[in-house]
Amino acid sequence: MLAKFDIAGHVIGLIIDRDLTDEMVDRVILEIQEKLEIYKSLNVYVELEKDRQITLKALFKGIKYKYSNSDHFGKIAIVSDSKWFQGAVNVSDILLDVEVRTFDLKDRLEAIQWISI
């Protein structure tokens, strides 16, 4: 399931409670696109719940979407206990002109504070 919440007008929060597959990335992108119809630029909070994984295909699809639409993002917070996912996000964002930070699940409140500013 994909749960959506608004932190502020320009901030969308998404919590994923299952493995992040190619199909789930499509749902995430759809939610973001709907919000972009209202706001030109967004901050995005994505939380992958404990013990959930991401497929390689989903990771590449997400990276491709981020690069293709980077001018629409101010900040992106990725919250997950998956160290390989956090590492892949950090490496993929080296050349991206968007502030991207990864957080452990225990630090989700810090992530929400950071993304809200």
Structure description:
It is globular and about 30 Å long. Strands 1-2-3-4-5 form a five-stranded mixed β-sheet, sandwiched between helices. It has a single domain, classed as Transcription Regulator spoIIAA (2-Layer Sandwich), CATH 3.30.750. Helix 1 runs parallel beside helix 2. The chain is built from four helices and five strands. With 117 residues, the chain is an alpha/beta fold. Pfam families: SpoIIAA-like. This is STAS/SEC14 domain-containing protein. It comes from Christiangramia lutea.
Keywords, separated by commas or semicolons:
117 residues, alpha/beta, Transcription Regulator spoIIAA, five-stranded mixed β-sheet, 4 helices, globular
Overall form:
globular
Number of domain units: 1
What's the total count of β strands? 5
Which radius of gyration do the C-alpha atoms yield? 13 Å
Distance between the termini: 27 Å
Could you give the order of the helices and strands? EEHEHEHEH
Percent of residues in beta strands: 25-35%
Pfam family, one: SpoIIAA-like
Protein name: STAS/SEC14 domain-containing protein
Organism: Christiangramia lutea
InterPro entries: SpoIIAA-like, SpoIIAA-like_sf, STAS_dom_sf
Characterize this entry briefly:
The protein is of the alpha/beta class and 117 residues long. The protein has four helices and five strands.
